[in-house]
Amino acid sequence: MTAPLAVVVVGAGFGGLGMAIRLKQSGIDDFVILERAEELGGVWRDNRYPGVACDVPVHVYSFSFEPNPDWSRFFAPQREILAYLHHCAEKYGLGPHLRLGMGVARAEFDEARGLWSITTTKGTVLETRVLIAAAGLALTTPVLPDIPGLTTFEGKVFHSSRWDASTPLDGKRVAVIGTGASAIQIIPEVAKVAKQLHVFQRTAPWVMERPDFAIPAGQKALFRKRPSVQKLLRGAIWSLMEAFAVGFVVEPRINELRQKLATRYIAKQVHDPVLRANVTPPYTLGCKRILFSNDYYPSLQRPNVELVTERVREVRGRTLITADGKEREVDAIVCATGFEASEAPAPFELRGLGGHTLEEAWKDGVEAYLGATVAGFPNFFFIVGPNTGLGHSSMIFMIESQVAYVLDAIKTMRAKGLGRVSLRPEVQRAYNERLQERLARTVWSKGGCVSWYTTKAGKNTTLWPGFTFEFRARTRKWDEESYEVG
Ligand code: N01
């Protein structure tokens, strides 16, 4: 076995790459990034469905330290975001640190030596002082619907995040199950080429107008010449998005106003009163993720598209049978049915103090401190851990906040010669009590919906309950007093 590393980062998406860049910039070079896939990119590598694009303005959906003056659109397509991540890895010299096709099978903390021992999926063993899981928690593991007969469907069936490019849908009869963020990007594209498209909706989503546009060449030139202009724009967009949080967590009347706008948008776009009623959500706007699209409602009104609100009871042969007994024969089924989220499993087998697993620590629900550390798991950090998701702004802001926190912890450990830092259980308890109290007052708890934000028992394990600037302030410096150090 080789000498212990300083840091192992697991995952090469926005979180893992952002962490790795900051490590390098801080002069910490003895680290590796383990990535189970053969390519970097995280969700932007996995999601390749037609129409896939960022649903947050791209000027805020990119690293603050690496602006890109060349985005083609305000809501950039997936291929540009993936290319951006490749560019970042290359520019910041991450190539020699990347171990592609190598995931983590298990990791165990050696208490006597204060080191993590990691067994990779290739069977190699690595040791490291600090282990950082940036492997995605909430939106990584696809969920297929539990419909009898789906697995024996005689045509093609696939999940939105595992798009089967070898199955062109042109001229085919297609079913899309789900009407979430992925589905509303897929449906308009498939509707253009399919012979017939059946959209199976369980709950109507709130959809608002998407202020998308191609970024003019003059603007790109200006961004290149004066990066401060793009920075100012980024700040302005972030501030506007931050204002949306007011409606979610402080003043519901702001949300009510947005809901009126969304209702008016339905009235403007959907002409048939039956369809209009069917696409009108039965819950308060914001309770589930707000979606943005200009072509979703028009696509539902194409002659080759049908919105089905009956539950799919069974799949038999090539036929979907709904609860009302109606049968629809199709060639392909796209399951845009989301991911393991609020009850996501630990990203890999992790054994901390006393040999206890993270799974055991989370038996009553996933939780952490500042989405980063868990009591009983020394020298272990998450990027995009529990309760760091957002309903109103860009995850990249949260990622950069968490990276700063973890980096400060590592730098402090090195400066003070700390071999082991372990979150105090009482800190985790108090933090989560307060977090859940705040979440209980928000639209995510009171809005009358069932969403991937909360567990079946109703605990919100995914979202941060406030403004992103609050999170930034709390993660600016590592708080040594919250940890037992040694
Ligand atoms: O998944 P979802 P998603 N039978 O869970 C339905 C991010 N994202 O992949 O509402 C029938 O939101 C389910 O119905 P219901 C973003 O954070 C980002 O679309 O539960 N239907 C719902 O309609 C997003 O929130 C971008 O009643 C079933 C849909 O499937 C997250 O990913 C783009 C069903 C699932 O929607 C997940 O989005 C895309 C069943 N058994 C996604 N099970 C960006 O652009 C589920 N459904 C950044």
Give the structure's gist in a few sentences:
Helices cover 33% and strands 18% of the residues. It contains 14 helices and 20 strands.
Which key features would you list for this structure?
FAD/NAD(P)-binding domain, 8-stranded mixed β-sheet, binds 3-acetylpyridine adenine dinucleotide, 2 domains, 33% helix, single chain, alpha/beta, 486 residues
Written overview of the protein:
- The protein is of the alpha/beta class.
- The protein folds into two domains: 283 residues, FAD/NAD(P)-binding domain; 143 residues, FAD/NAD(P)-binding domain (3-Layer(bba) Sandwich), CATH 3.50.50.60.
- Helices cover 33% and strands 18% of the residues.
- The protein is built from 14 helices and 20 strands.
- Strands 1, 2, 3, 4, 5, 6, 17 and 18 form an eight-stranded mixed sheet that branches. The chain has a five-stranded parallel sheet with strand order 7-16-8-9-12, covered by helices on one side.
- A hairpin with a 4-residue loop joins strand 5 and strand 6.
- Helix 1 runs parallel beside helix 11, helix 5 crosses helix 6 and helix 6 crosses helix 7.
- The two termini are 25 Å apart.
- 3-acetylpyridine adenine dinucleotide binds next to helix 4.
